[in-house]
Design goal:
Largest interface: A-B, 41 and 40 residues
Number of domains of chain B: 1
Structural class of chain A: mainly beta
Number of helices of chain B: 5
Number of strands of chain A: 26
Order of helices and strands of chain B: HEEEHHEEEEHEEEEEEEH
Oligomer: heterodimer
Number of strands of chain B: 14
Strand content of chain B: 25-35%
């Protein structure tokens, strides 16, 4: 059960971390409350950290983006305790919506974790802090130490599980090593929460106003979501998921939210003309919806990207 | 055109069937046996430490009725320690989730004597047992990437057993039940075993040492004949001490 955004505040941000090239006006901030069942459930994060910086790149080379007018503090965006802290999001051009983790930065340049040359020479971009597991469930009720778990699935088909330990600063320990740990929850992705009892949590933050390119990897558990806190329900045929997917091969499943995580709908992609089909009968489906904060899982045979519209455009 | 479409559908169906709809995703089994959250730890019958590197077997008994028969045979001395260990170690009787024999999951632990293919006692923790604070050998970690459906099946009870120096303990708890989704994790925490034992549903073989405060102990038991000898030895030692005190 998701409450609509209860508070919409328009305000001009003064970004505290760095000098500014320009500011973003009227960001939409607010909160929503989400309940989770006892057992397993898919969760996502639909409100993000505020934009820390936005501007137009003055140059791009390899994995380095330059902004000659910036005056960032060196490594203000660098990873912390081995976990990416900030990311660059390209907001115009060929790579619009693509996110890149920031590895390091100088006063005028940023090095990201991948080649960024496809973005062209002068794309618009924003810098935003990642939302981490410790923040996503910071307000969760009824989480029990050394009982409840979160599992995050990686692009290389591996997964990492975390056990609740409220005595640690992050509130979570690696379930294998028992060392304090944390994880990035990327925009429009999700994770599995396994809890012994039901509860609720509240998410506060900024509404994403730009499209997102969500990567999906073969062999991996691609938990993806519209990440729209506004209570939206869209036909699975109308969310733009299909471009680049393999006909009669790539699949999608929605799951129950009763704690059992049973497959609710198993679909297979039938191509642009047919869209999503029932995986058993191959009949086109018309009654399967993607809910705003209910993730689903996509299985792909080749690396693919789902271009998700910003919540206000969904 | 139609032929191509039909072929794609056939291929799609084959893919869907071979991949089990493609939703067979792996979950995590976290194991907590280090006294966290007021949980007991597992020790020898004499309350001593179990050596680091000792295997902790976690999985499913194929036939629980047969398990009970074996346990009763052990308790009545018609089955000795080696015989019971042989039966327990047979993959036809016990599906071990944390072993490379069955390869249902990889142990994820750090510490002494750890292995990627076997779950073990791996670390020492400072715990207070019966008023004495000391480092005690315990285990924690996880067995990663378990597919409940293909390994032990959904809703199956999960057991834990430890064998060490001719002693053995077999434990389970109702909370240790495989989820009904391969996406759902499970935590096997010794703290769910209660000190108030009703029947043999939790401690099938072993004992529970309940202290007024601090960490409790789940203890292994020796095979009955050995146990009798040990008790006799303890009685003799006690007698000797009494005699000395009397001098």
């Amino acid at each position: 059960m998701v409450a609509r955004i209860l508070t919409i505040v328009a305000c001009g941000f003064i970004y505290p971390i760095v000098g500014l090239a320009q500011t973003v006006s009227t960001p939409i901030v607010g909160f929503y409350k989400k309940s989770y069942p006892a057992g397993g459930s898919l969760q996502t994060v639909a409100l993000l950290k505020p934009v820390s910086f936005q501007g137009e790149a003055s140059g791009i080379s390899g994995s380095v983006l330059t902004c000659s007018t910036a005056s960032w503090t060196a490594n203000a965006f660098a990873p912390s305790t081995g976990i990416p802290s900030f990311y660059v999001e390209i907001t115009s051009g060929a790579l619009e919506g693509y996110l890149f983790d920031i590895v390091s930065n100088t006063s005028t340049s940023i090095t990201v974790d991948n080649a960024i040359t496809g973005a062209g020479s002068n794309p618009n971009f924003i810098i935003r802090a990642h939302t981490k597991l410790s923040e996503a469930l910071a307000s969760a009720s009824n989480l029990v130490d050394y009982n409840d778990q979160v599992t995050v699935y990686n692009s290389d088909a591996s997964s990492v599980s975390f056990l609740r330990d409220s005595s640690t600063p992050t509130g979570w320990v690696d379930a294998g090593t028992f060392a304090e740990s944390d994880a990035v929850i990327y925009p429009n992705t999700g994770y599995v929460l396994t809890s012994g009892s039901s509860g609720t949590y509240t998410v506060t933050g900024s509404l994403k106003t730009t499209a997102t390119a969500v990567p999906m990897y073969p062999g991996a558990v691609n938990i993806v979501s519209l990440s729209n806190p506004g209570g939206i329900s869209k036909s699975i045929q109308a969310i733009g998921l299909g471009a680049g997917l393999a006909d009669y091969s790539d699949q999608l499943a929605t799951y129950t939210n009763d704690g059992n995580l049973s497959t609710q709908n198993a679909l297979i992609y039938g191509g642009p003309a047919d869209g999503w089909l029932d995986a058993g009968s191959f009949a086109p489906v018309s009654n399967v919806s993607a809910e705003g904060v209910a993730p689903f899982i996509v299985t792909v045979t080749t690396p693919s990207v789902w271009k998700v519209s910003a919540p206000l455009n969904q | 055109m139609k032929k191509s479409s039909e072929l794609k559908k056939a291929l799609g169906l084959a893919l869907v069937l071979s991949a089990g709809l493609g939703w067979g995703h792996a979950a995590n089994l976290a194991v907590v046996g280090n006294g966290a959250s007021s949980g007991p730890i597992i020790t020898t019958s004499a309350f001593g430490d179990i050596a680091l590197g000792t295997r902790v077997r976690i999985g499913k008994f194929v036939n629980e009725a047969t398990l009970n028969t074996q346990i009763n045979s052990f308790k009545t001395s018609t089955l000795n320690y080696n015989g019971l260990i042989s039966w327990l170690s047979d993959s036809a009787n016990f599906v071990d989730l944390g072993t490379n024999v069955t390869n249902y999951g990889a142990a994820t632990q750090t510490g002494t004597g750890v292995s990627s293919s076997a779950f073990v006692f791996n670390t020492a923790a400072s715990l207070t047992v019966n008023g004495v604070t000391a480092n005690r050998n315990v285990f924690n970690g996880s067995i990663a990437n378990v597919n409940w459906s293909s390994s032990i099946s959904f809703s199956s009870p999960v057991y834990l057993w430890v064998a060490y120096n001719n002693e053995i303990g077999i434990f389970r708890d109702s909370a240790w039940t495989a989820p009904v989704s391969d996406l759902t994790a499970l935590t096997l925490n010794l703290n769910t075993i209660s000190s108030a034992q009703t029947g043999n549903t939790e401690i099938l073989l072993g004992g529970y040492q309940d202290y007024a405060s601090g960490t409790d102990l789940l203890v292994l038991i020796p095979e009955p004949s050995t146990g009798s000898l040990a008790l006799l030895g303890m009685a003799l030692a006690w007698t000797v001490r009494r005699k000395k005190n009397g001098c």
